Amino acid sequence: MNILEAIVLAIIEGITEYLPVSSTGHMIITSSFFGIAQEDFTKLFTIVIQLGTILSVVVLYFKRFLQSIDFYLKLLVAFIPAVILGLLLSDFIDSLFENPIIVAVSLVIGGFILLKVDDWFTYGEEDEVKTISYSTALKIGFFQCLAMIPGVSRSGASIVGGMSQKLSRTTAAEFSFFLAVPTMLGATLKKSYDYYKAGFTLTNDQVNLLIIGNVVGFLVALLAIKTFIGYLSKHGFKMFGYYRIIIGFTILAIHFFIQPLNVI
Question: Using an 8 Å Cβ cutoff, are 185 and 146 in contact?
Answer without folding.
Answer: no
